């Protein structure tokens, strides 16, 4: 069986997904058919940070948890960050 390609979703896309922006929702649905979707620990922090700042904190935190639970979490390390810096 062929391994699925992994795609990392950035904070801006996650926010649009949570806001229900139809073109983003459709694009994500299409991607998840053939790909494993994830995000990074930095994007996770940013999503929770915004949710906890929200006037509707309880609802926004729950929404963030919901979407994040459907994604894999790509954590980073110093070695990973050094390699990324070297490659860029």
User: With helices defined by DSSP (H or I, 4 residues minimum), what is the helix count?
Assistant: 5
Number of strands: 3
Average of the residue pLDDT scores: 92
Helix content: 55-70%
CATH level-four homologous superfamily name: 5'-nuclease
Which structural class best describes the helix and strand composition? alpha/beta
Distance between the termini: 33 Å
Unreliable stretches covering 5 or more consecutive residues: none
Q: How many whole angstroms does the radius of gyration measure? A: 14 Å
What's the structural domain tally?
1
For the sheet with most strands, the description reads: 3 strands, parallel
CATH-level-2 architecture: 3-Layer(aba) Sandwich
Structure characterization notes:
- It is a single chain.
- The chain is α/β, with parallel strands linked by helices.
- The chain has one domain: 3-Layer(aba) Sandwich (Rossmann fold).
- Helices cover 64% and strands 15% of the residues.
- It has helices at residues 11-18, 22-34, 41-53, 57-68, 78-87; strands spanning 5-8, 35-40, 72-74.
- The protein has a 3-stranded parallel beta sheet.
- Helix 3 (41-53) runs antiparallel to helix 4.
List the helices and strands and how they pair.
Blueprint: E1 5-8, H1 11-18, H2 22-34, E2 35-40, H3 41-53, H4 57-68, E3 72-74, H5 78-87
Parallel strand pairs: 1-2, 2-3
Outline of the structure:
It is built from five helices and three strands.
Descriptors for this entry?
single chain, 3 strands, Rossmann fold, about 90 residues, alpha/beta, 3-stranded parallel sheet, globular
């Amino acid at each position: 069986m062929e391994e699925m390609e992994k795609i990392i979703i950035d904070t801006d896309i996650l926010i649009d997904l949570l806001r229900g922006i139809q073109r983003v929702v459709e694009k994500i649905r299409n991607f998840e058919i053939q790909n494993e979707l994830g995000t990074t620990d930095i994007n996770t922090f940013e999503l929770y940070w915004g949710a906890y700042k929200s006037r509707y904190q309880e609802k926004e935190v729950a929404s963030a948890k919901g979407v994040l639970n459907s994604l894999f979490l790509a954590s980073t390390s110093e070695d990973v960050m050094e390699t990324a810096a070297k490659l860029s």
